[in-house]
Design goal:
Blueprint: E1 3-16, E2 20-27, E3 34-37, E4 56-62, E5 69-79, H1 82-85, H2 88-104, H3 112-128, H4 134-145, E6 168-171, E7 176-179, H5 190-199, H6 204-210, H7 214-232, H8 239-245
Parallel strand pairs: 3-5
Antiparallel strand pairs: 1-2, 1-4, 2-3, 4-5, 6-7
Helix pairs in contact: 2-3, 2-4, 2-8, 3-4, 4-7, 5-7
Length: 249
């Protein structure tokens, strides 16, 4: 039986029976898969933190094509993001961003970009602490990569770029951009749309330098949360406690 390797971040983890644990990874190279760690919850030799939500791990597994899960031979912890998880807010952020990734990442598909985005966001937050501004950055990058959020900022009616208009609006329900030349818009989203446009082409640290106002990120995050509700049809389980803790509820 062939033994293969994968590196990834645990985005789901659940107990099976008395001693096993099933995990799902946002992986670096393979498709999203489930991995069974047999006896891990009672093992004195293997660290159970390798199956913890938000842990970056390397897995050696048996490639069993006939099963819905892969049996783990060895698993090694690469990074637990201890600094980030050392306080309540950081832990809530890890739970939220991994749950969001799990919802966006279909099983059986390969999206190395989501692994890179998630690991980069956790690395940055582990090093510099959680920053609220990273929330819309992560969501927009993930949604646009998966083809859910439009990346060309053109008015649905006139076809002209909305970023050069006096005002513009993003309709969450229709997933369309509208400019003030063509429509009476209920709210001007232009500052946020300019932020979104920059987020799609710049590193997070560079975006912070170009757009220093936290209110722009909060407004952008509000739009993206509305978008996620329309996409998923429900709220993430980790949403309420996390957003109450950061003061957005």
């Amino acid at each position: 039986m062939a033994i293969r390797k994968e590196k990834g971040i645990v985005i789901q983890s659940r107990d099976i029976g008395d001693s096993d644990r099933l995990i799902s990874l946002a992986g670096e190279s393979q498709v999203r898969m489930n991995f069974l760690s047999k006896g891990i919850r009672k093992s004195k030799r293997r660290a159970i933190i390798t199956t913890e939500i938000g842990s970056l791990v390397e897995v050696d597994y048996y490639d069993q094509a006939e099963k819905d899960w892969k049996s783990i031979k060895e698993v090694h912890l690469v990074n637990r993001y201890d600094e980030l998880k050392s306080d309540y807010l950081g832990t809530l952020f890890v739970l939220y961003v991994t749950e969001l990734t799990s919802f966006l990442y279909p099983e059986g598909e390969s999206h190395p970009f989501l692994f890179q985005l998630l690991s980069g966001s956790l690395d940055t937050s582990n090093e510099k602490g959680f920053q609220k501004q990273i929330l819309p950055f992560f969501k927009l990058r993930a949604l646009s990569h998966m083809g859910h959020f439009p990346t060309e900022f053109y008015c649905h009616t006139c076809g002209e770029e909305v970023l050069s208009k006096q005002a513009a609006y993003f309709s969450v329900a229709d997933r369309e951009f509208l400019c003030s030349d063509c429509h009476p818009i209920p709210k001007d989203h232009l500052p946020v749309l300019k932020l979104f446009h920059t987020m799609l082409s710049k590193k997070f640290s560079n975006v912070l330098g170009i757009f220093p106002r936290e209110s722009d990120y909060r407004d952008g995050d509000l739009i993206l949360n509305q978008f996620l509700r329309s996409l998923f049809g429900k709220e993430l389980k980790s949403y309420f406690e996390f957003y109450k803790t950061i003061g957005y509820l």
